[in-house]
Every structure is written in C-alpha cells, then in structure tokens.
C-alpha cells in the first residue's frame, strides 16, 4: 500500500483512560518509536520515550511506579512526570538524565499524545465532543491493528460513494457540506437504510467532526427508532505500515423524540443494554467491511475523481497541512 508520509502531525490515541490505572506502566509503539505510558499513585499521567537516558533500559518492560515516580528496572533511577531524574541508588542524579517527554492529555476518556516531525509543541488542542444534560450509555471500546494510514481512514467519513456501495445505504443527502477551519473538519449527511420489515427502510443522519487526522467523532442518529450512537474513531500509526484503529461506542435514546418508538418499547421491556449492543454490533459489522478494503487497497496520490467526489479533493487539501515537511 503506497501512502502519504507515514507520520502526520497531530494528536493520536495511545489507549483508553480506564486501561491505565494509578500505579500502572504500559509500553506502546507510536510513530515508529517505543514509548512508555505511566500513571502515578496520585493519578498523574505521563508519556515518554521508552529508553532510560542512563544506560538505555526499556522503561516499559519492567519499569514500576514508586509513589509519584517511575523507577527504572536496570539501575533504579527514578523519574517524575516532568521528566527529571529524582534519585539514584548510588549518588546524585546526572544532569543529563531526563526523560524525552511527549505532550499528552486525556480527552473523553482517551489518552492522546501530540506528534510533530520536527518535535515542536502542539499549536492546537483537541476539542472534546459537545455534551448536554442527557447522559450516554456505557462506553464500549474496540481496537484493530492492520496496514493503513490515518488519512485514508478519515477520508472514509466524507466519501459518500463508499456509503452507497460498501455499506449499502441509499438516497444520500448532504445536510452540511464539508467545512474546514484550521485543523478541524465537519460534515453532515443523511441516508436511507433498507430494512426487510419496513418498505422504505429507516432514515439515518450522520454528523462527523474531526480534530486532525487522529481524533474524530461521528454521531449516527435514527429518528424513526428514536436512537443515536456516538462513535469515536482514533487511528494511530505504529510504524511506516501498520496502524492501531481504536473506537469508542456510546448510545442513548434521542432526547426529545417521541417515546412511542420501537426502541422505546424494546428498552421498556428489555432494558437499554440489548438496544445498545445491537447498534454497536451493526456498526462493528460495517467497520469490518471498511477494514477488509483497507487491508488490500492502495493509496493513489492523483485519483481519477468524478464530479460527485469533489469533497475528497477538498479533504485532501485540508489534510496536507499535517505534513509540514512535505510542504517545505
């Protein structure tokens, strides 16, 4: 698969907050390098290059938390979340003993780190999905690993043609054309989903918003069923070929929608869990269809786009900002 430069700048997921509890140390691959995630006993998060600056031990393989510090398994050097070496077993910490930190935060229960080819600090932050007074159901997560690139997977969200063929949707409508502002992008579509028991199927509305190429939120609502699902899509390059593709699912009854819906009746009788799981399984099924394509497709820098594909061209111009070295 021929792709754009493998490591675009921006914020990318390293894991889920619930998977890194206080006192834990976790090794990860990120943008062609080894990194270590750790959370101190008080809950402070830190992400750094894996190798101890003393003599190169991998801190993600045997490193441990001692209160507020990460302890190296080789010589016992300890490091704080600011990267400084705080102690050694046999003398004053060497001035050069300092962790190579990555800028990292937690947004919507996702641990994200910033990457720039030149190592410059982040010039923008991820805006979390909007919240209201109505609560979402429980979070459910899923992670895949496959050959791919964040630009390609993000492009899917505005590729109307693939919704009709790969996902078998009908009657596409553009409710909000592709809109870009700096590192952010959004669009809204409507489709009709055929169903065996309903002559015209059901109307589905999809609002998609992206913060760079590594963090996007998709709200899929089905007014006829009174249900909506929020899907976070989090592609992260591991190396020059492979990526981790994380997703977060949440569902709820659409606030203010008539409660005399099939979903409301099912929820009353069986509770919310079966409805949420059914919607999640439907979305997982559709994601697997996309992944089957990604595993074998090739990126074309000059695709033969038709008139209906104009949003793809607009998207690629927007995406080019995340390759600063390519732009000179």
From TrEMBL:
Sequence ranges assigned to domain Rieske in this UniProt record: 11-113
Compartment(s): Membrane
Listed GO MF terms: 2 iron, 2 sulfur cluster binding; cholesterol 7-desaturase [NAD(P)H] activity; dioxygenase activity; metal ion binding; monooxygenase activity
Keyword Transmembrane helix on entry: yes
EC primary class: oxidoreductase
Pathway(s) the chain acts in: Steroid hormone biosynthesis; dafachronic acid biosynthesis; Hormone biosynthesis
Entry's family note: Belongs to the cholesterol 7-desaturase family.
Identification of the protein by name: cholesterol 7-desaturase
């Amino acid at each position: 698969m021929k792709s754009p430069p493998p490591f675009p700048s921006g914020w990318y997921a390293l894991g889920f907050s619930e998977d890194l509890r206080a006192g834990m140390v976790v090794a990860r691959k990120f943008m062609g390098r080894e990194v270590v995630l750790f959370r101190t006993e008080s809950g402070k998060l830190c992400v750094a290059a894996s190798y101890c600056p003393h003599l190169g031990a991998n801190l993600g393989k045997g490193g441990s938390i001692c209160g507020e510090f990460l302890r190296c398994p080789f010589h016992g050097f300890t490091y704080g979340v600011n990267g400084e070496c705080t102690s050694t077993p046999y003398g004053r910490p060497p001035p050069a003993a300092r962790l190579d930190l990555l800028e990292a935060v937690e947004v919507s229960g996702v641990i994200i780190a910033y990457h720039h080819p030149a190592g410059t600090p982040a010039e923008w932050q991820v805006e979390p999905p909007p919240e209201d007074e109505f609560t979402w159901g429980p979070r459910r997560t899923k992670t895949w690993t496959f050959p791919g690139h964040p630009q390609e997977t993000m492009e899917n969200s505005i590729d109307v043609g693939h919704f009709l063929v790969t996902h078998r949707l009908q009657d596409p409508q553009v409710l909000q054309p592709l809109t870009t502002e700096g590192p952010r992008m959004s669009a809204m579509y409507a489709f009709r989903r055929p169903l065996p028991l309903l002559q015209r199927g059901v109307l589905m509305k999809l609002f998609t918003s992206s913060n760079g190429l590594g963090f996007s939120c998709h709200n899929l609502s089905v007014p006829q069923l009174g249900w909506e699902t929020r899907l976070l899509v989090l592609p992260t390059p591991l190396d020059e070929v492979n990526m981790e593709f994380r997703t977060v699912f949440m569902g709820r009854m659409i606030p203010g929608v008539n409660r005399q819906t099939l979903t409301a009746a099912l929820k009353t009788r069986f509770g919310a869990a079966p409805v949420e799981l059914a919607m999640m399984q439907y979305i997982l099924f559709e994601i697997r269809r996309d992944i089957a394509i990604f595993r074998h497709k090739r990126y074309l820098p000059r695709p033969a786009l038709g008139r209906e594909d104009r949003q793809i061209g607009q998207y690629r111009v927007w995406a080019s900002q995340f390759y600063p070295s390519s732009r000179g």
